[in-house]
Amino acid sequence: MSRNIKRWTVGLLCGALASAAFAVAPVAEAATEITVWHAYRGDEKAAFEKVVAQHNATQKDAVVRTLAVPYDAYADKITASVPRGKGPDVFIFAQDRLGGWVEAGQTIEPIDFFLDEKVTAQLVPGMMPAMTYRDTVYGLPLNYKSIAMIYNTALVKTPPKTTGELVKLAKGMTDASTGRFGLAYEYSNYFFHAALMNAFGGQVFAPGPVPVFDSAQNVAAIQTMLKWYRKDGILPAEPSSTLIASLFNEGKAAIVFSGPWFLGEVQDKVKYAIAPLPTVDEAGGKPMRPWLTVEGVYVSAGSAHKEAAYTFEKYLVSKDAAIVLALEGGQLPTNKAVYADPRVMKNATLQGFRKQLDTAVPMPNYAEMTLMWSPVTTAMNKIVKGAATPEVALKEAQETVKGNIGKLRKGK
Q1: Backbone torsion region of residue 390, taken as left when φ is above 0, otherwise alpha when ψ lies between -120 and 50, otherwise beta
Q2: Which of 94, 239, 248, 299 could be joined to 109 by an S-S link, Cβ 3.0–4.6 Å?
């Protein structure tokens, strides 16, 4: 046998053996990788990453990777990247941008096809509308946040239940000459002011949506706020979040209206408790109804792994995930079973914000919401500084938003 023939024969035999081995032991395929974007930091980030690790431990064919995005750039990054197929498979954000992203297209995948009653039945009532736009469901609600009454227990023994009680208590604790105030909150910020607006039956948009900033109800709500500030004198001037935290930590603000995010600014020496916002005597005893922000978990429209992405979504709203997010991350999960857990029941902070949920109102998720903030902020600043009456400033904001909506609908 020639040397060349021998080489050919040996090569053919080796090839046959390799083919046989390949047939007996197939090469394992790499797991599908799912990327999720979020803006969590500190304990929230650590708890979320623990939940992701728990989910990954239950999966054989998919693994989730996380990417923390700075909050200030987060919304713009989603808007710019996801429609171009450059973003994540899953992202987490509050519902106020939902309508805009749906209208823009190629950003969020509808999940009606995947959704079933077993998933929604485990959620706190009233959460799904925040994830619904034009009768289509686009996400699962993960956590919720709203402002409530946070009070210094060394200064306030019994939290006021009405605005009449609030003003009386706050007056007794206010001394502007020494920088002491009975109440502090960002009253010129419309997100915080909305609690009063909703008590009076006001709103920023009527169905359509149609701007209704200058309604009689909205004017009455602002007049009540101005009374607290100007006549009763219980509120500090130019109340920035930094000033409010400083006043509370120094024992110079007895009561603060704020949300769970504020607690990270409170020093250990300050002992506090959480209670629902008071009912409003000026509004016929109706409760203050703060805007509720609901963090949704969304599947990106361009994801190549939508089924695996939705499986991850479902796990995030499960009780197993919710326990970690609540106890270790200080979050307020939408899974209702978590609030019956003995450890959560003993957590006064979580239970305090959970009670506020009963009167909270989901923030509108209209696409037009993004057009509201700048004009309304300008109006509130004019009103507080006395540069315009509530009627005039709100009317100006309304006309500005109407014009911007017109441009939006014409595609300009």
Answers
A1: alpha
A2: 299
* pLDDT tens-digit series, residues 220-233: 999 999 999 999 99
d(CA 299, CA 36): 9
Q: Is the distance from CB of 322 to CB of 305 less than 8 angstroms?
A: no
Tokens 């995947």 — which residue?
Answer: 114
Strands (E), 27-185: 32-38, 62-68, 90-94, 132-133, 136-137, 140-145, 148-152, 181-184
DSSP string of 23-62, one letter each residue: HHSPPPPPPEEEEEEE---HHHHHHHHHHHHHHHHT-SSE
Alpha helices, H only, 250-388: 306-316, 319-327, 342-345, 348-356, 373-384
Q: Do the Cβ atoms of 47 and 331 come closer than 8 Å?
A: yes
Tens of pLDDT, residues 138-196: 999 999 999 999 999 999 999 999 999 999 999 999 999 999 999 999 999 999 999 99
Report the 10 Å Cβ neighbour count for 101: 24
The Cα–Cα gap between 264 and 272 comes to 12
DSSP track, 201-226: T--SEETTTEE-TT-HHHHHHHHHHH
Torsion sign (Cα): 13, 19, 23, 24? positive
Largest separation between any pair of C-alpha atoms in the chain? 112
CA distances (Å), 312 to each of 160, 214, 243, 323, in order? 43, 44, 40, 16
Determine contact, residues 305/34, Cβ cutoff 8 Å: yes
Is residue 106 a contact partner of residue 73, using CB atoms and an 8 Å limit?
no
- Mind listing the pLDDT tens digit for each residue in 259-293? 999 999 999 999 999 999 999 999 999 999 999 99
Q: Which residue type does 267 have?
A: Q
Q: Angle at CA 339, nearest 5°, toward 333 and 342?
A: 130
Record the pTM: 0.88
Q: Does 364 sit behind a cis peptide bond, omega within 30 degrees of 0 on the bond before it?
A: no
CB neighbours (10 Å) of residue 76?
9
**The tokens of 397 are what?**
């904001």
Q: Are 62 and 311 in contact (CB under 8 A)?
A: yes
Q: At what angle do helices 42-57 and 306-316 cross, to 10 degrees?
A: 120
3-class state of residue 393 by DSSP: helix
Q: 3-state secondary structure string, 279-296?
A: EEHHHCCEECCCEEEEEE
